[in-house]
Design brief:
Elements lengths: L1 H32 L6 H19 L6 H28 L8 H22 L1 H16 L14 H10 L7 H23 L1 H13 L5 H16 L3 H19 L3 H14 L10 H9 L3 H30 L12 H5 L6 H11 L5 H15 L10 H35 L1 H13 L3 H16 L4 H11 L1 H6 L4 H14 L8 H10 L3 H11 L2 H11 L9 H23 L1 E2 L2 E2 L2 H15 L3 H29 L1
Antiparallel strand pairs: 1-2
């Protein structure tokens, strides 16, 4: 009997791997030769990955029979609903809007299974939000005030959600199927072949020997890997297993070590060139080139990471912490001999920036280049086991993103069909009384709440539909508005009380999760200031002349330093008093905000503070002697 179970399990595992293999090569093939026309690309993208998930759940030995029966029923339901949709896709345009009973049946099956996947893969929070929107679609006529609308029949609901391109099979799922999946595959290749480890070693060589070196290594390495990874939590687990023990070894406490990793891992999702794949959605929605997104996001992302680096540096100086001992540093020759592994990311920027190549084509070439380069060394060469892990890792990475994109399509469909976005924008504008900073604060709060417990992609898509129109109506530049909600949707990963990235890091550091979350919040404080600054002055988004952009960047760097001094209450090499800390906080705002007058005032304050503190210290030392 036991032998039969093992054979059966082995057969199922082979079937699942075969489907996963087909799934990965399907997307590589369509990136090379063109996507499947009509709804086919999107339908196969979400359908196959859901089938893989249900089959994986079905073969788990510890699942009871009723649960396994539900898994296989859902699997059959997904196959049937996707197959039906692909079959009618060619003739749907000839129907003149008629919805048949069979459309309703298969549409309901797909929506139910999608909600089930959302609950189990993404989490209850998104599932509850989607369920609320579905309920609103049918009971809107009974609600008061601005929520009231004429209501939606079941036929129209299925027409929008299942058969049209404003619902499940909308822009978000298209981006996932055409672009995002390729960079998730790239991330899996890099992780399994040791490219990610190379970046960690490179960061260790560059920063490890300095005071608090392991913390600086965590910041830089997490920035490298987090740009490719689509999940802050995945980034914490990947790089934190190496960096957190190193930080603890040189003297950082459990909570601080975990917080550094959480804050750095979170920022990877708005760090170019890949930006956790959400940048592709922004480019698709705004209908601008991906290169424009990367260019605009570069300065704020660099300032965010510089802010964390400076903060951990000041903390290490204040507490007298050392760097990594020389005997534990990686071999310089061995690391630099693999510097060619950085070429794919450099080539990616060149392909999209200089040659203006499409995202899918650039992603395909980057994958191909990475696969060729990793074969140059036995340490990174792909064998059968690593190949299997690449395929499994690709599917694991796609699952939450694809399901979230499809599920958020239901919210988008309801919002478009009911017009609630326009009414909500009106309410937000009314609450803010037309004052930009008030609306920005309301948007920040909404973004932090929506981002708690949701993947970045899902949170961003919900916020784009519900909140961004109000910002644009008040005159905020569209790109700045999109990046604003993205930043706070991402930073919610380290914002208590639901700081998921901090909780994951606390698990590795053995620290208190809540304390880790609050420390991560402090470390990432620049991420709460920068979005307001680039909304008010787009120079930080490289919208301006070269001299103006360079001046704004340099003054913002000084401002971020003052902000780090505020967080650590430590200026240059002295512990700052409370009045000095408050002065530094005000100075940081003046310097981060791009403007000649504010820059000059900020620089003057820093100069006076430094001279006064130096003179006071000398007098004090002379008095002691």
């Amino acid at each position: 009997m036991e032998k039969t179970k093992k054979v059966s399990g082995s057969i199922w595992q082979k079937i699942i791997f075969a489907i996963s293999l087909f799934y990965v090569f399907f997307h590589i093939y369509t990136a090379a030769f063109g996507v499947v026309s009509g709804v086919g690309q999107k339908a196969l993208h979400i359908g196959i990955v859901m089938v893989i998930y249900y089959l994986r759940e079905f073969v788990k030995i510890d699942r009871k029979m009723p649960a396994r029966l539900w898994d296989i029923l859902c699997c059959v339901g997904v196959i049937a609903s996707i197959a039906y949709l692909i079959r009618i896709d060619a003739t749907y345009a000839l129907r003149a809007g008629i919805t048949y009973t069979s459309d309703i049946i298969f549409g309901i099956i797909l929506i139910v299974t999608l909600l089930d996947c959302t609950r189990r893969i993404v989490g209850n929070s998104l599932c509850i939000v989607i369920s609320a929107f579905i309920l609103y679609a049918f009971v809107g006529q009974y609600l008061p005030s601005f929520l009231k609308y004429s209501g939606m029949s079941l036929k129209r609901f299925i027409n929008v959600m299942y058969l049209g391109t404003d619902g499940i099979f909308g822009t978000a799922l298209y981006s996932s199927a055409a672009f995002i999946v390729l960079f998730i595959i790239l991330g899996a290749v890099m992780q399994e072949t040791g490219v990610g480890a190379f970046f960690t070693d490179l960061a260790t060589l560059g920063f490890g020997k300095y005071c608090g070196g392991p913390a600086k290594v965590a910041v830089v390495a997490s920035g490298f890997f987090g740009s490719i990874s689509g999940s802050a939590i995945a980034n914490v687990i990947s790089t934190g297993t190496f960096t957190i023990p190193m930080m603890k070894e040189v003297g950082f406490d459990n909570e601080y070590a975990g917080a550094v990793e959480a804050a750095a891992s979170t920022g990877g999702q708005f760090m170019p060139p890949v930006m956790g794949a959400t940048a592709f959605l922004i480019a698709e929605i705004l209908n601008i080139s991906y290169y424009e997104i990367v260019k605009a996001a570069a300065i704020p992302a660099i300032l965010y990471y510089v802010g964390i680096l400076l903060t951990v540096h000041l903390n290490a100086k204040k507490n007298g912490l050392k760097g990594i001992p020389p005997e534990k540093m990686p071999d310089k020759k061995a690391v630099l001999s693999k510097v060619y592994l950085a070429l794919p990311l450099i080539a990616l920027l060149i392909m999209m920036g200089y040659f203006r190549m499409t995202v899918s084509r650039a992603g395909l070439y980057t994958i191909a280049m990475t696969l060729i380069l990793v074969e140059l060394s036995p340490d990174t060469r792909i064998n059968y086991q690593s190949f299997r892990r690449i395929i499994d890792g690709s599917v694991n990475g796609v699952l939450p993103v694809a399901v979230a994109c499809a599920a958020v399509g239901i919210i988008t469909g309801v919002v478009m069909a009911t017009g609630i976005a326009f009414r909500l924008s009106g309410i937000l504008l009314e609450l803010s009384q037309g004052i930009t900073w008030v609306l920005l604060v309301l948007t920040m709060v909404a973004s932090l709440i929506m981002g708690m417990g949701m993947p970045t992609t899902a949170a961003y898509m919900v916020l784009v539909v519900l909140v961004v129109p109000a910002l644009v109506d008040l005159g905020v530049q569209p790109l700045a508005a999109h990046l604003f909600v993205l930043y706070f949707g991402v930073i919610s990963n380290i914002t208590p009380p639901v700081a998921l990235a901090a909780y994951a890091a606390a698990g590795l550091s053995k620290g208190n999760p809540n304390k880790t979350g609050f420390v991560a919040f402090r470390l990432a404080i620049s991420g709460f200031v920068l979005p307001f600054m680039f909304v008010y002055n787009n120079v930080l988004l490289m919208q301006g002349g070269m001299f103006e952009v360079i001046r704004a960047f340099l003054s913002a760097l000084l401002g971020v330093y003052c902000l780090s001094c505020t967080v650590e209450k430590y200026f240059v090499k002295w512990k700052a008093s409370i009045p000095e800390t408050l002065i530094l906080l005000g100075t940081s705002i003046l310097l981060i905000h791009p403007g000649v007058i504010t820059d000059l005032i900020g620089i003057a304050i820093i100069a006076v503070l430094y001279v006064a503190h130096t003179a006071f210290s000398r007098r004090k030392a002379a008095g002691v002697n």
